[in-house]
Amino acid sequence: MLQLIADGLIVGSVIALGAVGLTLTYSILRFANFGQGEFMTWGAYLAITALAFVLAVTGGGVMEPLGPFSFGWQLLAALVIAAGLTASLALLVDWALFRRLRRGNAITLVIASFGAALALRNLIQFLYGTLPEYYTREIQIAIRLVPRDTLGGLRVTPDQMLVVGLTAVTVLGLHLLLTRTTLGRAMRATSQNPALARVAGVDVEGVIRSTWIIGAALAAVAGVLAGVVGQVRPMLGFDLLLPLFAAAILGGIGSVWGAVAGGFIVGLAESFSVPIFGAEYRAATAFIVLILILLLRPRGLFGERG
Amino acid sequence: MSNALALESIEGGYEPGLPILRGASLCVAPGEIVALLGPNGAGKSTLVKAAAGLVPIWSGRVTLAGRDITGTPAHRMVHQGLGFVPQTENVFANLSVLENLQLAAALVERARRREIGEMFALFPDLDRQRKLAAGRLSGGQRQMLAVARALVASPTVLMLDEPSAGLSPKFVGTVFERLRAVRDTGVTILLVEQNVKAALALADRAVVLVEGRERLEGRAADLADDRRLAGLYLGEAA
Lengths: 306, 238
Fold this sequence. Notes:
The structure holds two protein chains of two kinds. By secondary structure, chain A is an all-alpha fold. Chain A has helices at residues 2-29, 36-58, 73-101, 106-128, 158-180, 182-192, 194-200, 204-228, 236-251, 256-277, 282-296, and strands at 143-146, 154-156.
């Protein structure tokens, strides 16, 4: 029982981070970006390149594990670089594609995002190949936090704890940005009424750029965290796309805290489905969650009434 | 002395080839309140939106204290000293009263910024509701917040699009009384209104727009008794 909850929270953390980026871009850019999953993949792969670069620059080429974790400080540096590069990639895609289509309708943008996702996924395969990669091959022993005779016991690795912790810190940081800074207030204002935001003095194009940067950086962090507790592979983001949408819709599209809650609920639903239906149906859980939300509460848990 | 705001032969509209403004002109002297009147579809709201940079201007000129600001992006207008309060959805409903004002203040340079406390002194109702989401305010309070939001950026000219829309007569009186207080702080006001009687009672001068251009203008007190004004609303030539 406890183990299932922990597994759900770990998977849910990655989903939550990706879903927050998705919901943020949806609320401000007003379209569902199917390329969000690919930004996760690109973030994960760019971190591999950045890690190689950092290791080459710092000499040695070997990553000494940091405390109880399987990776060294170099991966954290690579994470920051990858987030910056992924944000630049998002700005490039916006400049080359979405900016030109913004005056059209949302469906055009959604279809364009499908195309962008396809191109980005294939480009990854072309550049990095199709074989899975790892940030580190260090073996981690899971720590027993709760004995086996208490609710089935609980064992987690330090890396897994870091994933949940880093997600919490990142989401809290985003919350503070949205509520305490001028950029955050401008983003909330733009999401509600872009024309009024302009009149009030908000540079809406600047807000759109900031949204791409934040959304893509969050996706990159989610991608790297997914790679830390698993593999880095070209389908990493694509496989998480449905859970991302399920989480964003479950939470109420446009709501940051809703996306976080949605991410954890989808993660937990996936985790609990394994002993009930078997691991082969794990991926289908997000589908079922999505269908149930759309049938029972289309505006999601924290969404505003349309 | 140059006008605080002058719109000269403005032609424009939302879609190319479908003009709504057909050479509209008007001017507002410093410290004046001018009411922009006219029947439905005359282009009143479109004219102030065009001046605010929200509707394309195809030809003509907008000047603010003699400076040509035609084509300035809408978000730069506050830096030029031109404030605009739209008719509906004129506050950020998901932000608190205080956040609405903080955002407006943070978006202009410090020298231009008016103290938020000054706004609360001008609109005491808002002070009591500062933590409340703007979407939960009453219609009259929302209008006051919308005006306060625009005033934080110290506009020299404030344009308002039908501030009485949807308000009870009691609140119209309160809002208009506050606008008079705003003018007394040195702000020039251009007011689009459907409530002709209330607008003429407030304004110094009025301009009547019909089919995208001005057809009648004069002192508000004179126009209140002018039969041509009613005629224009009924589709007669001035």
